[in-house]
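Colleagues,

For the teaching module next term, I've prepared a clean inverse folding example: a structure given as tokens, and then the sequence designed for it. I'd like students to try predicting residues themselves before seeing the answer, so please don't circulate the second half yet.
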């Protein structure tokens, strides 16, 4: 039994650095009626969580018609929607203003994620 517990402890310790390195998130600032937000919803949202980028930076949606969450108070959402802000450990490391289409979106996001690592 103690060998199993020891193996579990080792597995958890090995997983911790990977979990810390994935401390990024993609915050999507959006508004109701945003045509480009709807296009993102149709083209990217259904698959995003299954992509490498989605695994590295899970999507978090923020409605600009509501108060900003307290942990985002230092982040400027910008004037245009959607605006995508990549945060790592609560700090902005990159931004995509608007939705440039699926190919460009993933290219820009990948550039942000790889330049921060």
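(Answer key — instructors only)
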């Amino acid at each position: 039994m103690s060998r199993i517990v020891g193996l579990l402890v080792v597995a958890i310790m090995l997983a911790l650095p990977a979990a810390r390195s994935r401390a990024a998130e993609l915050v999507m600032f959006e508004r109701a009626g945003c045509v480009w937000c709807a296009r993102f919803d149709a083209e990217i949202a259904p698959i995003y969580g299954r992509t490498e980028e989605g695994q590295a930076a899970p999507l978090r949606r923020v409605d600009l018609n509501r108060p900003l969450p307290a942990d985002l108070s230092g982040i400027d959402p910008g004037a245009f929607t959607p605006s995508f802000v990549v945060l790592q450990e609560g700090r902005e490391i990159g931004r995509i203003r608007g939705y440039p289409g699926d190919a460009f979106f993933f290219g820009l996001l990948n550039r942000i994620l790889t330049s921060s690592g």
